[in-house]
Amino acid sequence: MSQVEALARYELFIDGESMAPAGGEYFASQDPFTGKDWAMIARGSQTDVDRAVRAARRAFESGPWPALSASGRGALLRRLADLIGESAPRLAEIERRDNGKLAAEVVTQVNYLSEYFHYYAGLADKVQGTVIPTDKPGVLAFTRHEPKGVVAIITPWNSPLTLTSWKLAPALAAGCTVVIKPSEFTSASMLEFAELFARAGFPPGVVNVVTGFGPEVGAPLVAHPDVAHIGFTGGEIAGQKIYEAAARGLKTVTLELGGKSPNIVFDDADLDRALLGVVSGIFAAAGQTCQAGSRLLVQESIHDAFVQRLVDFVSNVRLGDPADPQTQIGPIATRPQFEKILSYIEIARAEGARCVTGGRARPEIGSGQFVEPTVFVGVDNRMRIAQEEVFGPVLSVIAFKDEADAVRIANDVQFGLAAGVWTRSLQRALYVTENIKAGTVWVNNYRATSYTSPFGGFKRSGIGRESGIEAIQDYFETKCVWLSSDLDVQNPFVRR
Ligand code: NAI
Ligand code: MG
Fold first, then answer.
1. Cut 0.85: pTM above it
2. How far away, in angstroms, is 95 Cα from ligand 2 center?
3. How high is the pLDDT of residue 4?
4. Distance, CA of 161 to CA of 87 (rounded, Å)
5. Is the pLDDT of residue 1 over 50?
6. Which domains does the chain have, with CATH numbers?
7. DSSP category for residue 317
8. Span 328-357, mean pLDDT?
9. Is 237 helix (H, G, I), strand (E, B) or coil?
10. Is residue 179 lining ligand 1, measured as CB closer than 6 Å?
């Protein structure tokens, strides 16, 4: 038996069934820690996209799904949420193998998905139309929120099921049907997750998964005339292409595109807590998170002492196997990402920033796809290392004088996803919060997200918000209904 045949094999999931891709081809998914292929994934194409969208449209228009009440959809979502627990260990293991995130972190993330589905299960039957006190006599005008139709969900590799569920849970609660295109680097967990929807009782065609590459599956999916809305998380280049294609089809989008978020530490902060917040902000998941606090803005008076504490803290961190509970930083998830991070370390050096810890790959660990936690000081905010998203464990430290200076530097980037502020002064915290251009501001904490709370970016960090009550509106069209109680209908050709 060849090595390829021994690997786990994953098919597409369309219309409630596993099926082989039309082209009959498969591609390998690697484990970034071992560097070895561990699974073969169906390589979808335009034909598979057509099949999936057709199934999703059929499920949207006919059969049991459109006949369900909103409460009925909520009941299905609750059943799904309850099923997550038993599958969580397996789903977490798949995600760890695919992207190298620490076991402890993926287990927590996957278990937390259940809360997302419970939340939107509850919200499904609480979105109400309004009766409008219109100026026209003899009418009752009211609104209905109707599901948009078939939704495309396109996701990256850093938190595959979480970022999918941020879109999937509200889309289903609203009554849409979906076609999901997971990242080509981390497709397996979604294929196993999709089977839970069948077990929970979702009708065939409501949830479909087409795996494959961006140009071969993502692009035709976005361009498909029967897709009404696209929910995307990923990089700016793919995000722009999707937005352009959506414009041609006059479709709506939700885009979450990353950032260059500042973590601002004032001299009056609780520095023990600030240190932990700064470290987890940039080094959790080896910096491969959209909300990474990749710029540390630290007040001049405490700059040197704080940087020293930071260096002491991270220089002893354990890099290694993400399955080992002792490991603190795992591998970089993909080879291209690993190379991109190393190239930014070179860029920073060439720009004159000074590396005070890390700065190297670690070829002797596992597959060698490791980057040390890296801190650059002497960074000018105009440097590329301060302006561009690295998506890795690389922190740029920038000194500031006062509140106004901190806000000016914080806002002087094209992104606006998130920001952290560390201070004991209520006045400072409020000043920064009010003046910063970012979708999330964390005061004396960093990185918290929840199903209850809207998340998304200002400026080039994206369009729209996910999570919380307002996120469900992305999946509805509003219909205004005019009911007349006037028994006469005016003759338009006769002036009264
Ligand atoms: P990407 O943005 O290229 O891929 C994300 C998803 O979009 C994948 O499923 C991909 O197949 C799909 N896609 C790519 N091109 C497409 C197209 N033309 N039409 C439709 N779908 C398409 O992300 P990639 O290559 O994995 O990472 C590139 C950079 O993006 C990273 O270096 C990082 O800076 C950033 N990134 C940001 C994330 C975030 O959470 N905001 C997550 C992952 C990456
Ligand atoms: Mg992989």
1. yes
2. 8
3. 47
4. 13
5. no
6. 3-257+475-479 (3.40.605.10), 262-443 (3.40.309.10)
7. P
8. 98
9. helix
10. no
